[in-house]
Amino acid sequence: MSTSVYIIILPLMGALWWFFHLRSKERRSKLPPGPAGLPIIGNLHMLGELPHRDITKLSQIYGPIMYLRLGSVPTIVISSPPLIEQVLKTHDTVFASRPKTQASKFLSYDNKAIVFKEYGPYWRSVKKFCTSQLLSTTKIESTSWQRKEELGLMVESLRGAAAAREVVNVSEKLARLIEDMTCRMLFGKSRDERFDMSKVIPELACLNGLFNVADYLPILGPLDLQGLGRRFKVAFKTIDNILETIINDHEEDARNSNVKLNRDFVDVLLSLQNDTFPGFEQLSKSIDQSNVKALILDMLMGALDTSHNSIDWILSELVRNPRVMKILQAEIESVLVHNFNWELPDGSSHAEMDMSETFGLTMPRAKHLCATPCVRLP
Ligand code: HEM
């Protein structure tokens, strides 16, 4: 290349570099404070196995509104109640849509349900439908007898364990109870010997919570470095088969005109396809079987691990704090029908209880809570 070409190109490159440097500096200066990131991965190296804890520590340094770059994803972390209120309440509609991830694509049948569907007319309509048909106070009250029945069965099994002085896997029992209650409301029956949901739902919740490099550095997605793509496919196939069986059963019942005293959620969703709901005519036109499956899965994912893990943690804290347990027992004594005290296995002390968590959508206990029930009230 001749010297004259260099004389033109070099200053041009210098000017371009200066222009982009200034622009990125200007853009950065408009962002909230945050730790400096590395090229390509940004701040990803600062997050470990429990990223919510690392983010808490960082926000104690950088303040209640912090900027992180997770691979190619710009991320703002809000950690003060007034700011959270601004995001979740005041400007709710601006922030209503959740980011699409590799997991969300599988979990919501390509974003066809409530949780991952972007905010808009379909989302509003489908959410209104689910709230009125499944989650309204009238609906919840009309199915309370089913939950009482399931609770009664669990109490009976705890009485049996108390009489035999057996250690009970409380976490597992709670998971089963919530699963049975939820399935009765959604599908009309608690257990089905043809399939087992107790493994696939926690696997889906775990996959949805796991750090997936493909979401932050999409260029690496096709390599499936963590083997998550394969796990998504296996879990999705399992749940899809289960949902297909449930829907087929309900369709068969409808074809045989089997009269049901209590229509469950799947019955209601399937009848939506036949346009029998005033006010939801547009929704019924845009719903096919994959939307129905996505909505059932949303409800399963929304209800199972959240409820189970909340109660699991509450009970663990109460077992660990006998003083608080006593105060609570005294407070609710007048409304209690059954009541148990809990003894830890092998004489281990409350202070020694393992309270570690694993990272996931619902932060489950790392180890199941196991204890022996002792009947307190007859
Ligand atoms: C203790 C139990 C529960 C906890 C702790 C819990 C927690 C949450 C949280 C934190 C959100 C996100 C809210 C947001 O982003 O604004 C959420 C959303 C949701 N939950 Fe729950 N939940 C529980 C029970 C349930 C149950 C029983 C169901 C269904 C039967 C359910 C269905 C949903 C659905 C569909 C969404 C998405 C709503 C939307 O995108 O607007 N949840 N839940």
From TrEMBL:
InterPro entries: Cyt_P450, Cyt_P450_E_grp-I, Cyt_P450_sf. The keyword Transmembrane applies. The chain crosses the membrane at residues 6-22. Keywords: Heme, Iron, Membrane, Metal-binding, Monooxygenase, Oxidoreductase, Transmembrane, Transmembrane helix. GO terms for cellular component: membrane. GO terms for molecular function: heme binding; iron ion binding; monooxygenase activity; oxidoreductase activity, acting on paired donors, with incorporation or reduction of molecular oxygen. GO terms for biological process: coumarin biosynthetic process. It is found in: Membrane. It comes from the Eukaryota. Its cofactor is heme. Belongs to the cytochrome P450 family. This is Flavonoid 3-hydroxylase. It comes from Heracleum sosnowskyi.
